[in-house]
Amino acid sequence: ARIRRYKWEVKYEYKSPDCYKKLVITVNGKTPGPTILARENDTIIVELKNSLLTENVAIHWHGIRQIETPWFDGTEGVTQCPILPGDTFIYEFVVDRPGTYLYHAHYGMQREAGLYGSIRVLLGDGKTEPFPYDHDRSIILNDWYHKTTFEQATGLSSLDFDWVGEPQSILIQGKGRFNCSSPGIDAGLCNATPSECSPYVLTVIPGKTYRLRIASLTSLSALSFEIEGHNMTVVEADGHYVQPFVINNLFIYSGETYSVLINADQDPSRNYWASAKVVSRQNTTPNGLAIFNYYPNHPRRYPPTVPPRGPAWNDTAPRMSQSLAIKARQGSISPPPPLSDRVFVFLNTQNKVNGYVRWSVNNVSFNLPHTPYLISLKENLTHLFQQSLPPTGYDFVNYDIYREQDGNGTTSDSIYRLDFNTTVDIILQNARQLLQNRSETHPWHLHGHDFWVLGYGDGKFDMFNDPKKYNLVNPILKNTVPVHPYGWTALRFRADNPGVWAFHCHIEAHFYMGMGVVFEEGIEKVGRLPTSIMGCGDTKGWSQRP
Ligand code: C2O
Ligand code: CU
After folding, report:
1. EC number(s) of the enzyme (predicted)?
2. Which of 72, 251, 309, 447 is the most buried (most CB within 10 A)?
């Protein structure tokens, strides 16, 4: 295994990813930032300089379990103090498995200012993938807002609630196109000519097979991705091999990664559209477009056809059936323990708390503490957060998930303490949100682990019958999973990674509004904490400790 060193500088710069000029956060001048390329078991060292002038930062390595390095998970408030302006912080961790992963800011709502990128971990030397392909490519899908994260965060946390609304554009590998002639757009800020906002081009050689790694880091949107005239074979999800299946369009939720195989076997005399469309929410966001370019056609030549329209935004059935189709690949199945030691049911609702709109789990909306849990738990500073346990379920006999939430919620910074090495089931139960008669899709992401996806269903989870239908034979392992509108999703994981780990909705605004929980396991097994993660809250000055 090798050591891969990166020197990154994070700063604000003016960019026009969708032709509209705004301040974005770049890594070494780019958004998306540089791709981390490694082989399994390599050590990654990122020396991160915060040049944001007036803003803290922290970077999370999404999908990397951080075994024996829980302090480098990069989750502000959970595993580390924020990195102050002018400071340099060194992340050092092992990428212990091949697959497609991500990195992104994990401080406030900073991710959506553009601080994100890909991690591609290849198999160790001499190993081969179970499916053949000629070339390997990555793209990240994202949604894009013109308002700053500060305006958005302020709107969300004001009594006079101001929702962020639908994104202005969809970006494919950092490029999109906003219509600069829309009414009310300042011509000085919107300019349709910069090369930054010309569509992303994916060039292919006729007859070759491509492994396309597709990831989503949207703030809000669920997406459907397709390449006009080409089917895709799904082979990987969140770093695990999938029993291959063929699709026309891929539904992808924020925090998920997939690999698909695409054969460049269509008429090579022209180019094709690649398109990403918002689904699950009624929206006005134009589809994100890229060019699937057959070499040697000119890469900027627009396809002669109208871009695909994509599926209807409000049709949940095909999304549910894609979720159900994702199974572990034969020959690489690691089945879950047949029974669990503990079951949590997490009701997902929107609540009012003292007049503020919040998202909650079992009517408790999460607040981050000022001293990161990892430090307060390791150092026995347990007075620094609420010690009562958060609720492990809700009133599932009487609660009507189709009715508007009537009770108020509470906020808390309490966490779930898991017995080390036990098996934990989580049932995510979706419900109706406030005011509107609908239920949203929430992609839940677990830090520090993968979980088996045991099942999905519509309506209210039935404690007696639904567990009998769990897939215990070949469930896929993932780190991010959707809970569909008015549906449930059941997961199982082993609490075998000493540390403190966030589990939250990957929608930026939802987590910001409290839609998350924290698990502690095996804190006594965590090694000596590096002082570099300290310095905030009750650990002021500790970063200078010997
Ligand atoms: Cu990719 Cu806690 O998030
Ligand atoms: Cu959510």
Report:
1. 1.10.3.3
2. 447
Q: Which ligand is nearest to the CA of 514?
A: 2
Domain range 1-128, CATH class = mainly beta
CATH 2.60.40.420 fits 131-331, yes or no: yes
Question: What spacing in Å lies between the alpha carbon of 540 and ligand 2's midpoint?
Answer: 33
Q: How far apart are CA 4 and CA 294, in angstroms?
A: 34
Q: Give the pLDDT mean for 204-230.
A: 98
- Which atom of ligand 1 is nearest the CA belonging to 111? 1
Query: What DSSP assignment string belongs to 425-474?
Result: EEEEE----SSSS----EEEEESS--EEEEEEEESS--TTTGGGG---SS
- Quote the percentage of the chain above a pLDDT of 90: 93
- Which CATH superfamily does the domain covering 342-539 fall into? Cupredoxins -  blue copper proteins (2.60.40.420)
Cα–Cα distance measured from residue 26 to residue 37, given in angstroms and rounded to the nearest whole number: 19
Pocket (CB within 6 angstroms of ligand 1): 60, 62, 75, 104, 106, 255, 445, 447, 502, 504, 506
The DSSP 8-state label assigned to residue 376 in this structure reads H
Question: Could you tell me which residue, 24 or 182, shows the higher pLDDT?
Answer: 24
Q: How far apart are CA 513 and CA 525, in angstroms?
A: 32
Task: Indicate if 131-331 has the same CATH topology as 1-128.
Answer: yes
DSSP code per residue over 304-364: SSPPP--S-TT--HHHHHHHHH-BBPTTS--PPPSS-SEEEEEEEEEEEETTEEEEEETTE
Cα–Cα distance measured from residue 511 to residue 361, given in angstroms and rounded to the nearest whole number: 11
Identify whether 32 is preceded by a cis peptide bond (ω within 30 of 0). yes
Work out which ligand 1 atom sits closest to the CA atom of 75: 2
CA of 341 to the centre of ligand 2 (A): 27
| Cα 440 to ligand 2 centroid, rounded to whole Å | 7
Q: State the complex-level ipTM.
A: 0.98
- Single-letter residue type at 99: G
